[in-house]
Design goal:
alpha+beta; 7-stranded antiparallel beta sheet; 6-stranded mixed beta sheet
């Protein structure tokens, strides 16, 4: 019974501390926003005073503007000198999260930026229900096959800012075991947590408005001397229309052929770009087979297949496929290969990952090699052996 009392007291203390941290964070953001807006207004007024003074040949006005700019620079220098050092590092908690969806946003390097949608399940002692969050993470190509929709990942999050979530790529053995055994239900869409307050773009717009407001104030004060008339021009913004389409067919097959200079799919980035185009065409990234040739890519899918029996288009290491093709063309006994082909299919068992087969054909015959989802070669079938193996 004593343990229960201590746990309740610890939870109450954590709640009080969390409220204090949130209050401090909100106040600091408010003061920072106030400082930026005031400084923007002062800079705008000072620059306008210099320009207006130069036009009117009024030296006091020019000196006032110069003095305003110097004052802003002085205040910034003093604030930078007296700014406190880094405070207490934020408190983070470790938890498990269900991967609802993930999508690679590009693939130009070994670390692929991936956009995750997660259901975070905090520990019971945190006193917070499961919630959804969207984050961007850089995942190495070697590790990317370990993250799939409906999978479980280990994450760290801040109790005071629950939208600040990061995936733990190297969890401790204990958390790894918990992730393998855990089953987490999806949280409703209504629990999606996003970073509050204006975005960086909104702050830039607000600072620009304050800058213009400061300048306009000075111009209005001297409007009689300037003899200018301002005309207001309204600007209309156009929002792009977004259309979406859904397909009710159970199976689908689609392909595309690339053309033009450097049209080979072996060109770096061309395979991933073509896969993204095919994904947009069919409206899903889960397919049952991918066929890649010199200038042609084809995908096939079945919407009735569970995720474990499909291949995720954006989770493949396309950047490593050209090296597999080169390996097959130069080491399997085909001296003058006429064509090559890559077949990607789901693994033989659940959780095994996709199987990548590279086949090359020449006058000597056909040869092939098999690799896993990280482009690690698992089997080689030189000329003659490939025909015998079927």
């Amino acid at each position: 019974m004593g343990t229960t009392g201590q746990g309740q007291a610890g939870q109450d203390a954590a709640e009080v501390n969390g409220q204090a941290v949130r209050g401090s964070s909100v106040m600091s953001r408010f003061l920072e926003a106030l400082r930026l807006t005031v400084v923007s207004g002062v800079i705008g007024a000072a620059i306008a005073a210099i320009v207006v003074g130069a036009i009117l040949e009024e030296l006091p006005v020019v000196l006032t503007g110069v003095g305003g700019l110097l004052l802003v620079v002085l205040i910034a220098a003093v604030a930078g000198r007296w700014s406190p050092g880094p405070g207490t590092p934020p408190v983070t908690r470790t938890a498990l999260a269900r991967i609802e969806d993930l999508r690679a946003t590009s693939g130009e390097s070994a670390d692929v930026p991936v956009r995750f949608q997660l259901t975070v399940a905090p520990e019971p002692e945190d006193g917070r229900p499961a919630y959804r969050v969207k984050i961007d993470e850089h995942i190495n190509l070697v590790d990317i096959s370990g993250y799939r929709p409906r999978g479980i990942a280990v994450v760290e999050y801040r109790p005071d800012e629950p939208w600040d979530v990061s995936i733990v790529t190297r969890p401790t053995p204990e958390w790894s075991r918990r992730a393998e055994a855990a089953e987490i239900d999806s949280a409703p869409e209504s629990t999606l947590v996003e970073r509050p307050g204006p975005s960086e773009g909104s702050w830039c717009v607000l600072m620009l408005i304050m800058f213009l407001a400061g300048a306009a104030t000075v111009v209005l004060l001297f409007r009689g001397e300037l003899f200018t008339s301002d005309g207001d021009a309204g600007a209309s913004s156009k929002q792009p229309s977004v259309t979406s389409s859904t397909s009710s067919s159970r199976t689908f097959t689609t392909s595309t052929t690339v053309s033009g200079p450097s049209s080979s799919l072996l060109v770096l980035g061309r395979m991933r770009e073509t896969a993204a185009e095919l994904e947009a065409r069919v409206g899903t990234a889960d397919v049952t087979e991918i066929v890649i040739e010199e200038r042609r890519m084809e995908i096939r899918g079945d919407s009735a297949r569970p995720p474990g029996e499909t291949v995720h288009l954006q989770m493949l290491p396309y950047e490593l496929f050209p090296a597999l093709v080169h390996e097959a063309r130069t080491t399997l006994g085909v001296r003058d290969p006429k064509s090559w082909r890559i077949d990607v299919t789901p693994g033989a068992s659940t959780g095994a990952g996709p199987r990548v087969r590279v086949t090359v054909t020449g006058k000597e015959g056909t040869a092939r090699l098999d690799a896993d989802a990280t482009a690690r070669i698992l089997d080689r079938r030189p000329v003659g052996e490939a025909a015998e193996a079927g």
